Request: fold
Amino acid sequence: MKLTEMVNGEHHPLGAGAIDYARAMAQSPRVTGFGAYLKEAILAARFPTPTHFARAVGTDPSVVLRWISEEQRPTIRSIERISSILGKSMNEMVLAAYPDRLGLPVATVAQTHPLARELDMMLSEQSPIDVADREALASVLDRMLDPYRKLMRRRRLA
Reply:
């Protein structure tokens, strides 16, 4: 396999579309509003795209895309249906969707890097990767990241 094929997602298990979606997600590190919150929650719940999420919750993909683009906000009934699938509490989702009605400021969402999400999927217990391979990958990554941990601790303290 050529490096360009890997970069372009031609041999990615989720296809080139997943790579394009991840690139788009990585372009803006901080965004605001419920759309950004929902997009991040969908990815954190390990759905490769909003369309996959929509199908899983029994909602038309166009509705989910309208929520993400903030053309529309989900009803309380919709929030009730999607919150558990996203691993969020009903209260947290309502606060994110309707901060203006609750007199709260619109939250800023820090997006997770697509590589972090991918590593999370690879190292999770639900991963199709063999346990021994996951442990080896975690060990290699741990050694690679170790020199940067001290630097990152200093930045947080400053």
